[in-house]
Amino acid sequence: MKKLAIGVDIGGINTAFGLVDENGDLYAESVISTKKYPYVDDYPAYVEDLCDSMKALSQSVSFDYELMGIGIGAPNANYHKGTIETPANLWRFKETDADRTPERRIFHLAEDIARRFDGTKVLVTNDANAATIGEMIYGNAKGMKDFIMITLGTGLGSGFVSNGEMIYGHDGFAGEFGHVIVERNGRECGCGRRGCLETYVSATGIKRTAFELMAKMNAPSKLRDIAFSDLDASMISAAAEQGDAIAKEAFRFTGEMLGRALADVVTVTSPEAIFLFGGLSKAGKLIFEPTQWYMEENMLFVFKNKVKLLPSGIQGKNAAILGASALIWQDTK
Q1: 85 Cβ contact list (under 8 Å, min separation 6)
Q2: H or E element, residue 289
Q3: What is the DSSP string of 82-132?
Q4: Number of folded domains in the chain?
Q5: Most exposed residue of 6, 20, 47, 135, measured as fewest CB within 10 angstroms of its CB?
Q6: Cβ–Cβ < 8 Å for 17, 53
Q7: Cα–Cα distances in angstroms (integers) from residue 291 to residues 27, 59, 158, 221, 321, in the given order
């Protein structure tokens, strides 16, 4: 009998999920709204909606199979505990909530879903770790024992694999590379500190860089005609491809910040390769070339020219679902 897993990607807007086999083939997929359930008190209704929708999807395929488990990638997920803990953009407090104790925003998602699926194995991890495991199971990291995954989206996520195992740390939250400080007293970060890497290297980071450059440089640029709220990273990429000086400098600077930070982290884990994944990585050589150059320029001599900088092998609209499902296949090996 065929064996399938459900992969679930929980985002701030939508939750996508699908039935996946161990080869990464997707048999059915669906989506529900996450933003429909914005507050703490909405969480039980969200779980009910998600479970009902997953059961409907499971019954939609036309053949018999064994469900091996449900893997979930989500912000602030704790692999050890099966929880999502104080996520920034999920299940917030209302202004009128009298009880704002932190414990109310620790959501026991794995336990709550397993109960509705008769004890089926449910594993959760943060979205960047899910992408990392997906790379290891389905992507370009097959056979690698030591590598780093960098996810370049609205923020910067990361996953670290050493000796074939994810590094979770004692509390389940290891790998927050986006929040290493690369510029003391630098840009304000959503985490409350200043100068975090993701404020420079992310879709929002490069947007901030572009506007800073427009204030400093006299070069003509089509970006000057776009309001801050309307500008996105894809526009900067398109302008750079057309030779726009400010857009090109924005990518060079972004690559410099990332390359310097990667040179430092290589001294800690000595990876075989570093993979770039997510929207900003799709800019290709615009981000890869400066990142590679500054990484090598700042690398400790014993590591120079040893670490490959590669694109992810699971790019695509289903990558997050595949990555989440890979949690189950990794656990069964």
Answers
A1: 76, 77, 78, 105, 106, 107
A2: helix 285-297
A3: TEEES-TTSSBPPTT-S---GGGGEE-HHHHHHHHTTT--EEEE-HHHHHH
A4: 2
A5: 47
A6: yes
A7: 37, 46, 16, 23, 28
User: Are residues 295 and 148 both part of a single domain?
Assistant: yes
Range of the domain at 203: 144-311
Instruction: Clarify whether residues 168 and 299 are in a common domain.
Output: yes
Structure-token pair, residue 257? 């910040």
Amino acid (one-letter) located at 61: V
The phi, psi pair for 288, rounded to 5°, reads -70, -45
Element at 139 (helix H, strand E): none
Judge whether 37 and 91 are in contact, CB under 8 Å: yes
Which residues does residue 326 pair with via DSSP β-bridges, in sequence order? none
Q: How far is CA 258 from the centre of its chain?
A: 16
Helix, strand or coil, per DSSP, at residue 41: helix
Mean pLDDT of 114-128: 94
Q: Per-residue pLDDT averaged across 156-164, rounded? A: 95
- Same domain for 323 and 262, yes or no, is no
Contact 21, 4 (CB under 8 A): yes
Spatial contact of 247 and 240, defined as CB atoms under 8 Å apart? yes
For residue 178, what are its two tokens?
Answer: 């986006």
- The DSSP-derived string for 207-247 is HHHHHHHHHH-----GGGGS-TTT--HHHHHHHHHTT-HHH
User: How far is Cα 223 from Cα 134, in angstroms, rounded to an integer?
Assistant: 36
pLDDT in tens, 214-264: 999 999 999 999 999 999 999 999 999 999 999 999 999 999 999 999 999
DSSP annotation of 78: E
Phi-psi region of 243 (alpha: psi -120 to 50; beta: other; left: phi over 0): left
Tokens representing residue 291 in the block: 């990142």
